Amino acid sequence: MTNGLTARQRSAPTLSFEFFPPRTEEAERQIWETIDALTAYAPSFVSVTYGAGGSTRAPTLATVARIISDTPLSAAAHLTCVGATKEDVHAVIDEFRAVGVRHFVALRGDPASGIGAAYRPHPGGYANAAELVAGLRAIGDFEVSVSAYPEKHPESFDVAADIDMLKRKVDAGATRALTQFFFDNVHYERYLERVRAAGIGIPVVPGILPVHHLAQVQKFAGLCGATVPQWLADRLGPLDGQPDERARVAAELAARQVEGLIALGVDEFHFYTMNRSALVASVLDQVGFERRENTARKTAAGAAA
Ligand code: FAD
């Protein structure tokens, strides 16, 4: 599917960056430095996650509000419906709307007791992400993105059930899917074929996770149904005591993954930044994404002072 151009010669694919809301002063400082550094890559939007059981409602709101007021970026708020009545969810949507949010990443979420605990819809709430998407679309003319799982959601019976759920979310009004992270592009390629065969035409944007800490990623991948291939563990595992070399190799591996996806025709990428800029910036530089130094932009880090 490659058209013979190198990554550098193509028209630039679009980017989005995902952050989580900071909980400490140090984390606060770090996220604004990160947002400031990554603004140079002119992402089409950035998103801020929402904690399990609504546990980060206030910090998510504060972070998104500040991105909208202090930076030139377009911000999407993640929103879950787990453990909440519809009235609760609507109150949250109103708060986000009041600070200027027009784009939601609508998710079912995991129980507050943790990933893997049995999910029970709130009796007065939205039962799943598809219902939440419909609720959002009934309330306002929002852009709504949703999740997708190239290696299957751990609760799904099979990939077909997963794709049925994606279709329900699209039928309810979702216009973009952001995938769970994966490391072997073949998972994405096969998944996309099945998604398209099911008549789903929306962009399915690969979620890219440059690996900061292998053990953490292995643990999280185990919980959310993603595979960490042996070749990746073999490359990064021995570098645990050499942070610079580990970062160099991690960036190189993620850059190769992105280039592989570009060769498949992918033109939109969602980066799980872990609120750190260096690794993501290194990946983007290696692939040939341009930095656009915009002197007119407000600097998020500067505004933090
Ligand atoms: P859905 O799309 O409703 O379901 C996902 C899949 O699980 C479906 O395909 C369906 O087949 C299967 N499934 C769901 N329920 C059942 C059931 N009862 N029985 C059998 N199968 C079932 N979590 C957060 O808490 N906050 C966030 O900000 C957040 N951001 C995310 C961003 C992205 C891009 C992704 C990929 C995930 C994110 N998550 C977040 C994680 C997400 O909340 C969990 O994966 C959750 O378990 C499912 O939510 P969902 O919206 O994907 O669910």
UniProtKB/TrEMBL annotation:
Protein name: Methylenetetrahydrofolate reductase
Cofactors, names only: FAD
Gene Ontology MF annotations: methylenetetrahydrofolate reductase [NAD(P)H] activity
Pfam assignment, any one: MTHFR
Similarity comment: family membership: Belongs to the methylenetetrahydrofolate reductase family.
Pathway given in the UniProt record: Amino-acid biosynthesis; L-methionine biosynthesis via de novo pathway; One-carbon metabolism; tetrahydrofolate interconversion
UniProt cross-references to InterPro entries, sorted A to Z: FAD-linked_oxidoreductase-like (IPR029041), Mehydrof_redctse-like (IPR003171), MTHF_reductase_bac (IPR004620)
Entry-linked Gene3D superfamilies: 3.20.20.220
Entry EC number(s): 1.5.1.54
Catalysed transformations (reactions): (6S)-5-methyl-5,6,7,8-tetrahydrofolate + NAD(+) = (6R)-5,10-methylene-5,6,7,8-tetrahydrofolate + NADH + H(+)
Keyword annotations: Amino-acid biosynthesis, FAD, Flavoprotein, Methionine biosynthesis, NAD, Oxidoreductase
